[in-house]
């Protein structure tokens, strides 16, 4: 089923009438001046009749001749304002002429509300402000109802109370310039304009809510803020913590005066304040570290958590399908302390140069539909009311179209990195690591919180660090301890710097939230449970006509219903009589206490409306008190914020800069340092140069001092051929361990690496096409073996499992899902996993680590190696085209690295390498800038870029810098093997992104005695912001010379073909498929579109990441083809790898002519997505089903979540069933294949998972278990789509069809008899 979408909700909800709360609070137009805003606060909601206001009240309100004077001295005529016969608040209106007959005090009540003034010291409202006699219980109940309706308002009130109370200039306290607890935060535009307050317009909404409550109950905004912020934790904890007890002695002092001046600037600590500054700030205000740490716990409500539920690392709520009103940001609990105390936090101060390294966020302007859906999920999770969600969605729609500017978030000056490394160490001080490890992958909180967290984790020995540590750990272990400390600290915080009214100074007033000095009438809720046509009981209750009793008591019941209790015993008789008349006797809401003691206590308030046009009486429900509690609301047309009007979404601009691959750079630049040598080249050892913010090694390198060498060849441990068949399996065994070796560091020290079988790169596999392989990887990275190395354990290898985790991906193989190297298919220390590979076509692949979260680290430190599948006739294959069998081969992998002063590979994930990693050393097969000697004949090169982030643009040049490769080399293949036909080598250079592979042949004939250089040309368009150090342009040196016995007389030469050959990808994609796909691209149509960008500080695909929404495409059909369009959502570039498949690059930027010749009509599994670019790909899905990954192969981006998955499913239910191979319509074939795919669909299929190494017999040891492991893929025919032979579990009919190359284009031809290797 298609996913439910959120973006379309925006206009629909915004067009619906907003409920009473938000309709009355949401902004309709910007407020331009302070006077205008204060007038809004002064005059309240809307008007009432002028003539009925008593002279006494008029004097108190400053009402003179129909005018009032604001607190800033502006005289305003309010005659018309007070004389409207119909008064409205939001979507609730009152017809006064129908109402004032039974409310003689109506004019005074409405005038109090409408002409309410902030309780500022120099005006009458402040001078006479008396908190005694106010209806505090109703204030509390109103706040409670408000927050239950929209929980995010609770978080805003709590945050506002903090900022308002603590933004003081302690040097001016006490006094008028002190500030603090005076509502200036909510009464000044300057405060509300701060970015953290203005987001979503919600600070303005909170301010309006506070002023509305204050005007309704005639109290100060400062008191409103203090009382409501005390109620917030009660609502969000579901009553667990009650700052206001409701009974007993008063606890919260009231009587605060308001202040219209902005809070003093610079009196709140910056977000990046360290622990010392943080402690100093609170101590100056009289708070201990324990109290301050408790108060910071309110950051449990921080809204950057958005949809995160917190029960698992990937537990995110989807508001399109679920109720997200209880996500973690709305739960008052001690998860804040469990988070900040969970290892491991790193804090790195950033210079302006460092901050420039951080990529810009993908703008909302021009977002695609999936991106906007992801953003909408984030935003709607931050609200619990439909109306507030509508506001957020409407804002998104406007920003997306360019009708409104996106809020600018200032850059952070400190980088916080939170990893799961050593996560279980938190168990030592109470973290439940079973539940909390792994913790969330994003740091939700501020830098202040990170400093507190480091202290909790054991960083620092200063007194303030110890005090914070003790407090935070106590709150981790005991929720009640935090609740109690927060409660007392909060009461202290909102009172310490308050300015009290004269009356409150003389007569201090403390409330518990249960006080009720006056009341109104019993609620309609007592008589009927739901809104609608009023029942007889409701009418009877509100009229006070309790039949006979009402008459006998002389109207006492009518008075009792209004809260006027001449004789309590009479009210009790009224209550009993009324209860006896209810359908459900003894309604618990109708009590004598509610009637005569505290009748104004507000529950889910339902109001008795008088009559509609037909004379019917209704009960209308609202969740927020908008006027006097017994108003009679009737509906009016909605007045929401202006809805987005729709229209075209502006397209993202594409970089269509023309290029010419046939033009070589000037010879003078080929061998020259890129940039100013004085700024990119260290002058001596010990000097570190920063280029574009990335540090170099502290060494002055001399290239071309070491000899080129090939990695060792992987050795077969065992071999098996199934009797009576041509089916074989060869086994290899690879140990993974750490070792230190000399790599040529000028300081002469060995460099630690992670290795496959002790070498970097790992052993090279050379496998014959058609021979299946079993590769057992033994993880020797146990705690004991890691001791004394730079490497550590990591999640999930903690607790019952241990060591450093690995997962191996054979990049270039269409492997079954459990053998593909799924990022969470973890093999821990002292465990082994058997991987089975089909080797179904010749091609150039590699294997590398793919462990979730630490792929970049494991691969950078050495875990990668080459894996080549060949088809040479001399090695038992069918033969290779173009006379390639006789041409010497050079398999090379290129990567860069940087060393520290101790010759260790430098990797600072919390610092300069948090988004990309670039080094100043170019390695070829693990050797820095090697020198190779090659004969003067045709040479064949297989090239792989295995760096973390750096792309290469490779050229051969002569010693004088002139181009060589453009005229003497040809590109013959790539990831999926040889091309249809060779193409000329681009003179400008062969561009290779991370993980891309190409095969090249070059004619070195006649060059004996000459020298060539392989160089890395700079491309300022495709290598945006990539640093080039002193020798980054140099890769290796080649001396062309005959060997010791001389040059061969007539060596085999490359023979260009006369016609195109059929590649394996062509066998499963015919020209009709290709033409249809090209037609789609011509019409700018895609089966799926994925935009690679950055939002909210992390890398995303269509706005989502691995943990927020792993599956990006759940309905890909088995053996179907699709057109995927990839886009960049910002200014960076991304090498995109799609597992399982080979694909063709159809177009760049919607233009088939922008595809580079060397990447056209060649099977690929990685493609470079340039900055501000679009790529259309034709993918043939097959041959397997299951869930597979696709991601950016910049390994830093991959580790930081720019990775998602797709699921290949049974074809009939897929989106693209019509593009399936004909074999998918054959029930016999489908049934035969399903036998395997129903088992191997799961990438973490338990039967294929890791096992304790101690339980396995080494593959080199002949044994029954070794034979069983070798024979398994043949006996079970797990790769039956390639090799439908040798298994008894394939029916004869199924085998016959799968063995027919016409029916099954995946069938692997095996041209010669095969045998087991010795």
TrEMBL record:
Plant heme peroxidase family profile domain mapped to chain residues: 180-352
Region (Disordered): 638-668
InterPro entries associated with the record: Cu-oxidase_C (IPR011706), Cu-oxidase_fam (IPR045087), Cupredoxin (IPR008972), Haem_peroxidase (IPR002016), Haem_peroxidase_sf (IPR010255), Peroxidases_AS (IPR019794), Peroxidases_heam-ligand_BS (IPR019793)
Transmembrane helix listed as a keyword: no
GO terms assigned for molecular function: copper ion binding; heme binding; oxidoreductase activity; peroxidase activity
Family: Belongs to the peroxidase family. Ascorbate peroxidase subfamily. Belongs to the multicopper oxidase family.
Name the record gives this protein: Plant heme peroxidase family profile domain-containing protein
Lineage: Eukaryota, Viridiplantae, Chlorophyta, core chlorophytes, Chlorophyceae
